[in-house]
Design brief:
It contains 10 helices and 13 strands. It is α/β, with parallel strands linked by helices and 343 residues long. The chain has 2 domains: 92 residues, no CATH class; 216 residues, 3-Layer(aba) Sandwich (Rossmann fold). The chain has a 6-stranded mixed β-sheet with strand order 5-4-3-6-7-12, with helices on both faces.
């Protein structure tokens, strides 16, 4: 298994396009400045030792040195020892509503982003628990199969948005059924958390919750939004808000939290219901309740030892820096006979 010990350092690589753009701008500015003294061909004859290709080659070498340095500082590691271990925990599936109503801003910054922030914080507290994720709107899809890889869970969570599911709606029952099927071992303690505004339009989620609870799976619900309701923002292709969603008659659509439905689902699912607000998203209370479930043992495979490979990248970076220092912008008399750089 390959990983970076410090993956956050890799964000520095986003500076590369800016450095390239700055270098191109410098070349253009230099050429424009020299043109003030006459024609470019004449200037080349007056200063025959100048070599533009050498300058570009030095910059390319320097950029490769920069990339290898950043990769080295991030410390690439290779898993060298795969072991099987016994771990105790709970299997947890999170069903996250990604319908357009989750863009409502009665909970800041909006319902969906607030839910994602809460899930991310919960993942940090999971310990040995396994987690999976279902996203749903008009249909439900497995976003993340159940796993002990909490880093992968946060990565998949970061990609969730309202465009990830093509069909609009709120199929809570379908999401519950898919979550129940996603558990790979019936001997484990299992729980489902549904995070939604509760506006179910597709199925009888309450009856489905009762059936799932009979299989020994607890269902917890978190209501995102406020009962009084709020408009649903609409955005253009550049994610700029252009107004609010309207119905066919031109009236502004108001989305309201359906607490009754979510309370019924939680009751039939032998769990609890919590309403989120601008200070608490409710997941902490739900997670505390889930932690009261009996934790079961399960086997998991993991890499226990990782070997660092940063030294190869640092060495390559230093070598390229030395090469860059040995390349002069001016042509030497004896090297000019080799015609290595062409001009």
């Amino acid at each position: 298994m390959f990983r970076f010990e410090h993956p956050d350092i890799l964000y520095v690589l986003f500076a590369l396009p800016a450095l390239v753009a700055l270098f191109v701008w410098m070349l253009l500015w230099q050429k424009k400045a020299l043109r003030r003294y006459g024609e470019w061909k004449v200037i080349n004859r007056l200063v025959p030792a100048m070599s533009k290709s050498r300058l570009i080659f030095r910059f390319v070498v320097l950029m490769f040195a920069f990339v290898f340095l950043i990769l080295g500082l991030a410390n690439p590691q290779i898993g060298s020892k795969l072991v099987e271990g016994e771990r105790k925990g709970i299997d947890l599936m999170v069903c996250l509503d990604v319908s357009n109503s989750m863009l409502a801003q009665d909970i800041k910054p909006n319902r969906l982003e607030r839910a994602k922030q809460a899930i991310s914080k919960m993942i940090d507290k999971l310990g040995n628990d396994r987690i999976g994720m279902i996203v749903f709107a008009g249909n439900a899809y497995v976003q993340l199969p159940i796993t002990t890889d909490h880093s992968a869970a946060k990565l998949f969570l970061s990609t969730v948005n309202t465009k990830i599911v093509p069909t609009q709606g709120t199929a809570i029952g379908e999401a519950l059924e898919l979550a129940a099927k996603s558990f790979d071992d019936e001997t484990h303690s299992r729980a489902i958390i549904v995070i939604t505004d509760g506006e179910n339009h597709e199925d009888d989620a309450v009856e489905i919750a009762k059936t799932i609870a009979d299989q020994g799976i607890n269902i917890y619900t978190i209501g995102m939004g406020l009962p009084e309701g709020t408009p649903i923002p609409e955005y253009d292709q550049y994610d700029r808000q252009i107004g609010y969603k309207k119905d066919r008659q031109g009236n502004t659509v108001i989305t309201r939290l359906n607490e009754t439905a979510l309370q019924q689902i939680a009751a039939e699912g032998k769990g609890i219901y919590v309403r989120a607000n601008n200070t608490q998203a409710g997941l902490s209370k739900v997670f505390d309740e889930i932690n009261k479930l009996e934790k079961t043992e399960f086997e998991s495979k993991m890499f226990s030892d990782y070997e660092s490979r940063f030294q190869y990248f640092i060495a390559a970076s230093l070598l390229l820096l030395i090469i860059e220092l040995l390349i002069f912008e001016r042509k030497s008399k004896w090297l000019s006979k080799i015609k290595l750089f062409g001009n």
